[in-house]
Amino acid sequence: MMQGTRRGVSVHYLPAILLLVHALCGSVDGKREIPIGAIFHQVPDHSYESEIAFRYAVERVNMHEKHFELVPIVRYVSPEDSFRTERKVCELAAEGVTAVFGPSSLLTAGIVGSICKTLEIPHIITHWDPEPLGGIEAELRAMTINLYPEADVLSRALADLIVDYSWKSFTIIYDSDEGLMRLKDILQIHGPADAPITVRQIDDDPDYRPLLKDIQSSGESHIILEIRPDRILELLRQAKEVKMLEEYQSYIITSLDAHTIDFEELRYSRSNITALRLMDTKSFDIKNAVHDWEQGEARMKRPFRVSPEHVHTESALYNDAVKIYATAIRELDATEEITPARLSCGSKNLRQWPFGLRIVNYMKVKTEHGITGPIIFDDFGRRAHFHLDIIELSKDEGFKKIATWDPTHGVNYTRSQGEVYSQIVESLQNKTFIVASRIGAPFLMFKEKKDGEFLEGNNRFEGYSLELIDGISKILGFQYRMELVPDGKYGSYNKVTKKWDGLVKYLLDRKADLAVCDLTITYERRTAVDFTMPFMTLGISILYAKPVQQPKDLFSFLSPLSLDVWIYMATAYLGVSVLLFVLSRMAPADWENPHPCKQDNDEVENIWDMCNALWLTMGSIMGQGCDILPKAISTRLVAGMWWFFALIMLSSYTANLAAFLTMERMDATIESAEDLAKQSKIKYGVVMGGSTMAFFQTSNFSTYQRMWASMESARPSVFTKSNDEGRDRVIKGKRMYAFLMESTSLEYITERYCDLTQIGGLLDSKGYGIAMPVNSPYRTAISGAVLKMQEEGKLYQLKTRWWKEMRGGGQCTEVPNSSQENELGIGNVGGVFVVLALGCFCAFLIGILEFLWNVRKVAVEEKVTPWDALKAELKFALNIAVTSKPVHNTLSESTASGKSSLRSKSESRRGSELAGRGNSVRTAASLTNLDKSGFAFDKH
Fold first, then answer.
1. Could you give the CA distance from residue 138 to residue 133 in angstroms, rounded to a whole number?
2. CB-CB contact of 434 with 788 (8 Å)
3. Residue limits of the Ionotropic glutamate receptor L-glutamate and glycine-binding domain (predicted)?
4. Please, are residues 741 and 730 in contact by the beta-carbon 8 Å criterion?
5. Which of 98, 334, 819, 849 has its CA 20 to 30 A from that of 342?
């Protein structure tokens, strides 16, 4: 920093001394003298540095010029004394100055510019000069050249920096109306829908703490300081006292002289302090200029010390102003000798300097490069193109250059990402983060205590979130302390109160550095906090109870046809059989000769009794044939129609049986969100205030809009306070309630509750991220650690561990066999076997009855006891070696009367058979003497 102050007498006599020296030198080398005037203010202190820069810039020019020599004439005025300023300018004009440099006050500079315009003397200024409200009048600024960056372009540079920093909201602290005018572009970069910009003015009261506390209570962490340089340090010192210089607060200082302030006591603050600088303090030009200043003052016995890093912007601009003016004089003097002229402000015959306008126009088109970088003017003499250094306060080096800005390329960072990352990682060493979270399996749970065990701190918890942050801390080398958010919520914005809750509020209140849990990255949350890259991807899906298997029914095979159809079929079966019997009795074609070989037989018979009719229709409906068929057209037509009917019924029954039995095993189910939206029987809901709820609230998709309308209007409410409550409601709902939740939590539940399942696919795609305050300097480093864990497979291992292994995981990992799922078990078709068994049993009973009936007939016909006939028939039936048997006379008396003609013709033959059989039956020996041909009957 500059040391020493202006020494009254010596400074005032310095112009006279220099004039004397220049006069002596001029007589020696023969250079033409070209006087130039300069007006400096007596305050602030750094005006002395500007004067030194001006004088020694003139001295350096004179050292190199061969044909002319600049003679500086300096005057001093007060910044508010416009009358004295006018008089000093007229004095300079009377002394024949060819240009007037300064002053730096807007009030006094305007008067100087007006007089110079009248006399056509170049007026060169080095301070901020705003554009008039009515616009710039070229005529009024015809003789003015300003080396200070043009106001609108400088404001645009600040706006670009804010946009690059992604500041969504910020507070401006200013101390004068001029300062607020400099931020015109910044105030215009926000639209009506953006977060509001807060503007606060400070007065002459040196206590800034109440203002800073108000800003802190508002939650604002981004502050722009548009105040005088002498106030900056004190304001930041008080900000530190009220905890406003923490790591999540960021400051941008608009003054181009911020680099001259000694921030030594604030270098170790955790906030980010950024400023702009017009010059490169490491360049050769500025080091050379500072060397000239120090050596020159040493020769004059006036101690002066200043480092290149602390040179004021105005001093550098005076150096460049002298340089560019000398260049214009040199170039124009080469074609026409430039001669000074003494001019008078009050003369009636006002004269103007003939070379002034030519010099100004030349300077406007001339491009130079000085301490402050490239110097290019527009048509109004404003410096419209320039370079700015973006500097940041660091712990080791003070202000350090991190980027540059120019009107063409905007912000361009000069440090590499590796340097940024290394700097952040270094700052993380031995730092303790407060990590906010909430209880929710498997991300964070209370650890199960053992007998007599006392748990405290991080040891109270376990889960995915804890192991995730623990892995990150080992990579980056920081410590952490887990804390639970009081309300247990994730974080949603209340549009009525305009406040956040849950984890987001905890971060906004600066009560935590990180928030780790199943916190979904959403657009709304991104406006309030920052997120790392996702450590887990997911989507919304449906939790629902698995289908309930119905009780097995032995007679399921009857289900494809309703009871009415079975009754109609039985009725049709009997009706067709009776009709066939009646028609066959009536139709002549169905009466036929029993002995076709005897053409002279006078008797015919009809085989279509009721039994044969029933047998024919039964064989048709069972898909089988019959050995006898009707002959008449009518009976054939009836039989054909019945066969057609039986074919259709049998085909339909067979086609629908397997499908029906398969479908019978489970009740009706849903398969997607569309199925839910189309029905109203099954209710469905989400966690109140979560990201899933926000998804349906803001969705433009018609299906999801209908679902949200249904959820919102449902009574009782379908919303829950947590995923666990939603899970329990699905279990108790008995497939009358579905729960929409994030797939990761759903997967965790279905691994432990085997009667629950996921329905359909994912409705959206999103991710879980680690949240932190906006513009947190650690976001890049933590994201890098998450990426490293992902590449090493540690994230997958963590998920497998907490989803499938810990806390009862892996219970429901059996994969059902899809082929077996469609098979019919004995429980479904066992009824067929029951019917078959009953049929066989009935047939067995009928066979026994037929056997006994036959035994009775034999006993009657053979005139033996029933017991003897039964024993004889049983012995014959059990003798499997016998393959033939004599035919018994089984015709009853009623049958014989109906068929008298047949019996008369065979009576003699039957009589002999009966007589022989009766003799054999009566003989006990004949019952026991069996041969290979069966019973030993007497044959006559």
1. 14
2. no
3. 442-509
4. no
5. 334
Q: Where are the alpha helices (DSSP H) in 720-793?
A: 723-732, 743-750, 779-791
Q: Which residue has the tokens 């480093």?
A: 781
pLDDT-derived band at 915 (thresholds 50, 70, 90) equals: very low
Q: Residue 172 above 90 pLDDT?
A: yes
The DSSP result for 792-846, as a single string, is: TTHHHHHHHIIIIISTTTTTT-PPPPHHHHT---HHHHHHHHHHHHHHHHHHHHH
- Residue 97 C-alpha from the chain's centroid: 69
Query: In angstroms, rounded to a whole number, what is the distance separating the alpha carbons of residues 300 and 6?
Result: 12
Write the pLDDT tens digit of every residue in 394-418: 887 788 899 999 999 999 988 777 7
* Spatial CB neighbours of 169, under 8 Å, sequence gap ≥ 6: 194, 195, 196, 197, 198, 220, 222
Q: State the residue for tokens 């305009």.
A: 498
pLDDT for 899 equals 38
Higher pLDDT, 915 or 583: 583
Distance from C-alpha of 916 to C-alpha of 926, rounded to nearest angstrom: 12
Answer with the residue of higher pLDDT: 452 or 909.
Answer: 452
Question: In which order are the strands placed within the sheet that holds 68-77?
Answer: 68-77, 32-41, 100-101, 123-125, 144-149, 382-385, 373-377, 368-370
Q: What is the DSSP letter of 687?
A: B
- Please give the C-alpha separations between residue 455 and each of 444, 459, 479, 934, in angstroms, as whole numbers: 15, 6, 18, 99
* Residue 621 pLDDT grade (very low, low, confident, very high; cuts 50, 70, 90): confident
Tell which residue, 665, 426, 676, 686, has the closest CA to residue 548.
665
The angle at the Cα of 648, spanning 644 to 649, to the nearest 5 degrees, equals 115
Instruction: Report the candidate in 191, 201, 189 with the shortest Cα–Cα distance to residue 226.
Output: 201
Tell me the C-alpha distance between 248 and 773, whole Å. Answer: 7
Q: Between 827 and 30, where is the model more confident?
A: 30
Residue 919 has φ and ψ, to the nearest 5°, of -65, -40
Q: Which residues contact 693 (CB under 8 A, 6 or more apart)?
A: 686, 687, 719
Of 239, 242, 248, residue with least CA distance to 266: 239
Q: What is the pLDDT of residues 76-97, one digit of tens each?
A: 998 888 889 999 999 999 999 9
604 band by pLDDT with thresholds 50, 70 and 90: low
* DSSP-derived pairing of the beta strands 250-253 and 222-226: parallel
Q: Nearest 5 degrees, angle CA 283-CA 287-CA 292?
A: 150
pLDDT at 112 over 90: yes
Residue 427 pLDDT grade (very low, low, confident, very high; cuts 50, 70, 90):
confident
**C-alpha to C-alpha distance for 858 and 855, rounded to whole angstroms:** 5
Looking at per-residue pLDDT, the higher value among 707 and 874 belongs to 707
Angstrom distances, CA of residue 586 to CA of 261, 309, 612, 641, 921: 131, 132, 16, 19, 44
- pTM equals 0.65
Q: Which residue has the tokens 């069972």?
A: 622
> Shortest CA distance to 321 belongs to which of 167, 103, 14, 175?
103
For tokens 């301490």, name the residue.
371
pLDDT band at 450 (very low <50, low <70, confident <90, very high): confident
Closest by Cα among 360, 343, 355, 339 to 32: 339
- Bridge partners, 223 (sequence order): 171, 251
Residue 401 contacts residue 390 (beta carbons within 8 Å): yes
Q: Distance between CA atoms of 471 and 69, rounded to whole angstroms?
A: 72
Could you tell me if 285 and 371 are in contact, meaning their C-beta atoms sit under 8 angstroms apart? Answer: yes
Amino acid at position 209, single letter? R
Contacts of 227 (CB under 8 A, 6+ apart): 173, 174, 175, 179, 202, 235, 255
The pairs formed by 784-787 with CB atoms below 8 angstroms and a separation of 24 or more are: 784/421, 785/471, 785/472, 785/475, 785/476, 786/472, 786/532, 786/533, 786/535, 787/533
